[in-house]
């Protein structure tokens, strides 16, 4: 399995607090069947002032430690990108990281307030050649009143990523409901752990993968955990990636 959303790097955002936590998270990921993991700390100006060069250096340092400890986990660069001016310019320059230097990037909207121009910003970024991967919409406090907006972004070409723990009910009944609804409506491209620590927010994809297999079948479970994430890693054009079931059914 490939996990494209984790806060594995030590001490640079609200994820792993130190290198020992990072190491233990990596061990847990491997034990769960994860073989590739993207380190995606927040880039949120004024809160988490991370940038491309500093994240790359941190990933290289952690990869060296994992190699020394013989932990078989391949690390990729990335970032949890928040709304900010000149995002496309930042990604072109390397100040803001896409996932594995691909055209795909994790796009995290504000949790408690629906931004009025989110669809417009996403469309502008796609016109600039980037593919937003909207992270954990099922957990947003405004999903009930703006679900149609999420649907419009999906139809426009934005990718949708659910958090594994939402699918297994670990975030409660509300994220579980929206996860199941989006899965059933064919609106989910990938799932990821969004791991922050070794406790409740640990690296774990296998349980969610099993839930997707129960609901949509083994093939789709493989696509959300491996096929489409691998397409992102290889920077494959979206039209050449295995489509989500709704598109598959219409073709």
In order across it, which strands form the biggest sheet?
3-5-6-7-8-9
Query: What percent of the residues sit in helical stretches (DSSP H or I)?
Result: 40-55%
Sheet of most strands? 6 strands, parallel
Beta-strand residue fraction: 5-15%
Q: In the residues, how many domains can be counted?
A: 1
Radius of gyration: 17 Å
Structural class based on helices, strands and sheet pairing: alpha/beta
What is the mean predicted local confidence, pLDDT? Answer: 95
Commentary on this structure:
- Helix content is 44%, strand content 14%.
- It has 251 residues and is an alpha/beta fold.
- It has a single domain (2-250), classed as TIM Barrel (Alpha-Beta Barrel).
- The protein has a six-stranded parallel β-sheet with strand order 3-5-6-7-8-9. The protein has a three-stranded parallel β-sheet with strand order 1-2-4.
- Helix 5 links the parallel strand 7 (131-135) and strand 8.
- Helix 8 (206-216) packs across helix 9 (218-233).
- Mean pLDDT is 95; it is low at 247-251.
Features:
3-stranded parallel beta sheet; single chain; 6-stranded parallel beta sheet; disordered C terminus
Task: State the gist of this model.
The protein is α/β, with parallel strands linked by helices and 251 residues long. It has one domain (2-250): Metal-dependent hydrolases (TIM Barrel, Alpha-Beta Barrel).
Q: Which SSEs are present, and which pair or pack?
A:
Elements: E1 2-6, H1 19-31, E2 36-39, E3 42-43, H2 52-68, E4 74-77, E5 80-82, H3 87-93, E6 104-108, H4 118-127, E7 131-135, H5 143-156, E8 159-163, H6 164-167, H7 173-184, E9 190-192, H8 206-216, H9 218-233, H10 245-250
Parallel strand pairs: 1-2, 2-4, 3-5, 5-6, 6-7, 7-8, 8-9
